[in-house]
Amino acid sequence: MKVGLYFGTFNPVHIGHLIIANYLVEYSDLDEVWMVVTPHNPHKEKRSLLDNHHRHQLVYIATEDYPKIKPSDIEFKLPQPNYTVTTLAYIAEKYPDYEFALIMGEDNLKGFHKWKNYNTILENYAVYVYPRIAEGQVKPKFSNHKNIHKINAPIIQISSTLIRQGIKERKNVKPMLTKEVWEYIDEMNFYKK
């Protein structure tokens, strides 16, 4: 089985995340996509994050109707801050019969050279890159790398930051979330302050 690992803080998970995950599982050679909820991204401040279990629960309820898309809390058990190279090694050891690939937006590929042990990732894993509108250029060494596969997925310009800000400003953000995710966020009074 070939599994794409889609890492994110998912703070909160939104329809853009689901569109990308579903596109990859339906239009690439991936059998499943695991949405790996990251407790602490080394490049983001921790104070703006919902608790781990709430973000995992949001991903769980967002993906219930998609049998090929699964929530994962595997990084909750690993040392923090989380580094993708460490998580990949752990997952590969835990699930030796699976083949894993990394999913990332093109904006992340532009800064991929700054990731811890990025060469190790590139040597051992396929990287599926979906388009994002962002400033900067992809480094030439990544443009034609044999393990980097550009996926012609829809460009999604929805962000969790936009949603959090919208909730804080009492705007209607419901169309950007699944019904169940919106109800959970609203019931728990998340992002309102």
Q: Would you mind describing this structure in some detail?
A:
The chain has 193 residues and is α/β, with parallel strands linked by helices. The protein has a single domain (2-156), classed as 3-Layer(aba) Sandwich (Rossmann fold), CATH 3.40.50. The protein has helices at residues 15-27, 52-63, 84-94, 106-110, 118-124, 140-143, 160-168, 179-188, and strands spanning 2-8, 32-37, 69-72, 99-105, 126-130, 148-150. Strands 3-2-1-4-5-6 form a 6-stranded parallel β-sheet, with helices on both faces. Strand 1 (2-8), helix 1 and strand 2 form a beta-alpha-beta unit. Helix 2 (52-63) runs antiparallel to helix 8. The relative contact order is 0.19. The model has no long low-confidence stretch (mean pLDDT 93).
Short note summarizing the structure:
The chain is α/β, with parallel strands linked by helices and 193 residues long.
Which topology does CATH recognise? Rossmann fold
Distance between the termini: 43 Å
Mean pLDDT: 93
The CATH architecture name reads 3-Layer(aba) Sandwich
According to DSSP, the number of beta strands is: 6
Spatial order of the strands forming the largest sheet? 3-2-1-4-5-6
The sequence of SSEs as H and E is EHEHEHEHHEHEHH
CATH class: Alpha Beta
Number of helices: 8
Percent helix: 25-40%
- CATH homology superfamily: HUPs
Q: Tell me the overall shape.
A: globular
Number of domains: 1
Primary descriptors:
193 residues, alpha/beta, Rossmann fold, six-stranded parallel β-sheet, 8 helices, 6 strands, 37% helix, 17% strand
